Q: What sequence folds into this?
């Protein structure tokens, strides 16, 4: 959702807004709503994370055959059953219709609410003119984009409903409501609120999920062929298929979908995030095709858009990598510096920054970057390895050997046996010469 959102400012109270038409007169503060199916391995962690803020937890089961229902009952959730009909919006709307809270938080079983965000969310609940909130979500295990903004917390208002068979959202409802009642704000919370573990699933599970997703997205596009948001999501799915199938047809089709999507989002301010993702995915597709200049241009288009900075991390990261490959070191350093400025706790950003600084001959700065990586992620084997190389360059041999030794230990613990053996062989050779 990207309709001119503003950052939360709770230093002063806004003027009282018009009364809100809610689904229930009861003044519970927050209802958490989940739709689930066969989520016994994730549900406990999710429900635990909600205990400190949710006044009501609604779990809508769509046909579980495992212990999902039993777990929900153990947590005294309000449990409902919904007959699955290949339409996520219908299931979501069924769930939020049961909500009695002043606010609704929509969360999935493979997500966890970060406890450090509780006080920020409480401030949002007490904000008079806020209608909905884009929440920062950490994409655990994601290969490309480490963060995303998801519109998942909103007032319990009868006009707000989900649309879309798959990748359902309330975006259009919010846009329509703001046109009717322009005093409402949509704000961004740009500190982590949710952690999403869906990308950490096994490859087999990922393939099964992607086929299910593909079928529903195609079904949606049969009804709404010019939906830029869904064209973007389907394109992204075909690009991910290419990553493990290596079929160029997947990329060519993805590019066709993206071009069609861009034609639909042009000159639509509320579509900025979708337009950003379309350019971003276009860049990935061109990279896979070996078209670096086209990829570079796509990423430049992405980062030029007026979207929250946190959304741009992946594009800056990929753009920096292309500059690095093109030996445009100054530009690469600038891109990776942007990543570290936007996300100072993102270890991968500092690692890439260190690589670019080393390439530029800025060894002291590279050492500082790699040490920052290790402070953020003590198990980052490649960071220790690269730190060792740079330490040798500046003559700190004892520290370099210690860094290489730690890297070997971590590679072995992480079952990267070949990397550990190569590094051990190199370390022996270095030790014999020194």
A:
């Amino acid at each position: 959702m990207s309709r001119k959102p503003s950052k939360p400012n709770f230093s002063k109270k806004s003027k009282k807004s018009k009364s809100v038409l809610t689904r229930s007169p009861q003044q519970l503060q927050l209802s958490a709503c989940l739709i689930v199916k066969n989520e016994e391995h994730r549900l406990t962690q999710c429900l635990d994370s909600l205990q400190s803020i949710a006044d009501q937890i609604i779990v809508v089961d769509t046909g579980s055959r495992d212990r999902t229902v039993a777990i929900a009952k153990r947590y005294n959730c309000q449990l409902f059953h919904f007959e699955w009909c290949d339409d996520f919006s219908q299931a979501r709307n069924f769930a939020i219709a049961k909500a009695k809270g002043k606010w609704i938080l929509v969360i999935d079983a493979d997500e966890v609410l970060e406890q450090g965000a509780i006080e920020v969310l409480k401030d949002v609940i007490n904000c008079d003119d806020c209608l909905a909130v884009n929440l920062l979500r950490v994409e655990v295990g994601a290969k490309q984009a480490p963060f995303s903004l998801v519109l998942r917390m909103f007032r319990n208002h009868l006009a707000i409903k989900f649309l879309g068979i798959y990748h359902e959202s309330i975006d259009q409802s919010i846009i329509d409501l703001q046109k009717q009642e322009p005093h409402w704000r949509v704000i961004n919370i740009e500190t982590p609120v949710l952690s999403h573990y869906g990308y950490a699933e096994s490859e087999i599970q990922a393939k099964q999920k992607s086929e299910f997703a593909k079928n529903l997205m195609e079904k949606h596009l049969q009804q709404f062929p010019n939906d830029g948001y869904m064209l973007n999501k389907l394109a992204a799915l075909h690009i991910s298929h290419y990553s493990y199938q290596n079929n160029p047809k997947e990329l060519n089709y993805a590019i066709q979908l993206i071009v069609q999507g861009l034609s639909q989002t042009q000159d639509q301010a509320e579509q900025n995030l979708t337009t950003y993702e379309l350019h971003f995915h276009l860049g990935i597709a061109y990279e896979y095709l070996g078209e670096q200049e086209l990829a570079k241009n796509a990423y430049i288009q992405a980062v030029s858009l007026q979207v929250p900075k946190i959304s741009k991390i992946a594009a800056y990261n990929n753009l920096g990598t292309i500059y690095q490959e093109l030996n445009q070191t100054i530009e690469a350093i600038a891109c990776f510096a942007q990543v570290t400025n936007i996300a100072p706790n993102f270890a991968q950003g500092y690692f890439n920054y260190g690589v670019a600084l080393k390439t530029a001959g800025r060894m002291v700065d590279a050492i500082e970057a790699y040490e920052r990586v290790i402070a953020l992620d003590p198990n980052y084997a490649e960071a220790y390895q690269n730190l060792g190389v740079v330490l040798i360059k500046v003559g700190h041999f004892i520290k370099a050997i210690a860094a290489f030794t730690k890297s070997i230990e971590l590679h072995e613990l992480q079952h990267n046996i070949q990397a550990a053996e190569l590094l051990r062989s190199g370390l022996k050779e270095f030790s014999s010469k020194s």
User: Anything to note?
Assistant: The longest helix spans residues 203-223. The two ends are 58 Å apart (CA to CA). The chain has two domains: 28-200, 203-433.
